[in-house]
Specification:
Ybab, Chain: A; 2 helices; YbaB-like_sf; cytoplasm; DNA-binding; YbaB/EbfC; DNA binding
């Protein structure tokens, strides 16, 4: 008997579940890289696209926004960036919860 894990069968079960989480995390990483999440500002005049890892992919500006002052354009860009980042981070958090939410690792006091 290994201290903290109980009988050998529980160790095998814990290792199997850990492998499932690892495999799921690898799939999730690929999904996050392929996602496109759009943050907007100014009723869609400014759009920033990031992937599920919060990496910037694209910025789109409606030509109408270029008639505004530099300060306004900067504020709109920042707002769209924060919006995209927030959505991406929340998506990542939810997906990680889905991945690990039902996993119980016996003997570790988790789940």
């Amino acid at each position: 008997m290994t201290r903290g894990f109980g009988p050998f069968g529980k160790i095998q079960e814990a290792l199997k579940k850990a492998q499932e989480v690892r495999d799921g995390a690898q799939r999730l990483q690929k999904e996050l890289e392929e996602m496109e999440i759009v943050g907007e500002a100014g009723n869609g005049l400014v759009k920033v696209t990031v992937n599920g890892n919060q990496e910037p992919l694209k910025v789109s500006l409606d030509p109408q926004v270029l008639q505004e002052s530099v300060d306004v354009v900067e504020d709109l860009l920042l707002t769209a960036m924060v919006n995209a980042y927030t959505q991406s981070a929340e998506t990542m958090r939810k997906r990680m919860e889905e991945l690990t939410g039902n996993i119980s690792l016996p003997g570790l006091g988790l789940g």
